[in-house]
Write a structure and sequence with these properties.
Length: about 325
């Protein structure tokens, strides 16, 4: 399999897993969030990834979330299901279930904590591929896996059977572009193309899409890619500019955490402020409850034009 066996492209929100305040799965809110993304014209969703708090779920809950998301999407969105785990057999069990439930593909990072060496990373994905009969997305998540899949390693992984895409969350923009140019002939590449630098990369070398933490902007995120596909790069540019301006006000460099709390905690708070279905975080994540932090987050959304209110200067925490 390779990139030509799938049609994945555009903006895919990294889907949060909604929990109730007491920590139970909230599948009603999950279904509402799917409907929200369908209404906003998203091209796909990625379930049970980093934003989906897979690490706080049992394997049975991960299966429930996969089934619920696929069922709610009902073919209207591409659905990729995160299946990261510590051993290839566990990954394969989750992936086989997700694909059997109707997912379009699966997303797998190197095992967290272990910090594999490059030959071990290749062997791991080869092992997973030998057990999974469906399209696999390599997930480069340095902050979680403890390693950064560089361009040379990505080049090797692009040749693994069943690998059809890479979601590259390296903090190095230069490395990302180098990887994109190296492997796009074989796999689809998702990364920070929704930026001014990314827009130029799309213009000069091409690219497939972005898997972003939710979608605070809503419809403008998929519209950006539709404008690019139409060749109207100047129409797409304003959204790239405002996305570049918003990101550093809310997220730490590399996008691994929020300025006011963990990535998942901050994203869900922001989504609720915008009226998006989000639910709550589950332990070990904690909600953001500091009134000053919540006020500053809201002020950022107001200044960006995402919420109505009186714009005000925001002093980001040190």
């Amino acid at each position: 399999m390779d990139r030509h066996d799938v049609d994945w492209q555009g903006y895919f929100p990294a889907f949060v897993t909604p929990f109730t305040e007491d920590g139970a799965l909230d599948l009603d809110t999950l279904a509402a969030l799917v409907e929200h993304y369908v209404a906003e014209g998203m091209h796909g969703i990625v379930v049970n990834g980093t934003c989906g708090e897979w690490f706080s779920q049992s394997e049975e809950e991960r299966r429930q979330v996969a089934e619920a998301a696929v069922g709610a999407a009902a073919g209207r969105l591409t659905v990729l299901v995160g299946c990261t785990s510590y051993r290839a057999g566990e990954v394969a069990d989750l992936a086989t279930h997700a694909l059997g439930a109707g997912a379009d593909g699966v997303l797998v990072s190197p095992p967290p904590y272990v910090k594999l060496f490059a030959p071990e990373v290749v062997a791991f994905y080869e092992d997973v591929s030998s057990r999974v009969s469906g399209p696999i997305t390599v997930y480069n998540w340095p902050y979680g896996a403890g390693i950064d899949i560089d361009t040379e390693l990505a080049d090797r992984l692009a040749d693994v059977e069943h690998v059809v895409a890479i979601k590259d969350s390296t903090p190095s923009l230069e490395q990302f572009f180098a990887t994109s140019r190296r492997v796009r002939d074989r796999v689809r590449v998702f990364g920070p193309y929704l930026s001014e630098a990314g827009l130029e990369e799309l213009r000069e070398h091409g690219g497939d899409g972005t898997v972003g933490g939710g979608s605070l902007w809503g419809r403008p995120d998929p519209t950006y890619y539709e404008q690019v596909w139409a060749g109207d790069f100047e129409a797409a540019r304003p959204h790239a500019v405002r996305s570049d301006a918003l990101f550093p006000q809310l997220w730490l460099p590399g996008g691994w955490a929020g300025k006011y709390g963990s990535y998942q905690s901050q994203l869900k708070e922001l989504m609720r402020m915008l009226g998006q279905p989000a639910g709550h975080v589950r332990a070990p994540r904690l909600p953001i409850t500091d009134p000053d932090s919540l006020a500053e987050m809201r002020a950022v959304l107001v200044s960006a034009g995402l919420l109505e209110g009186e714009p005000q200067a925001v002093q980001a925490p040190a």
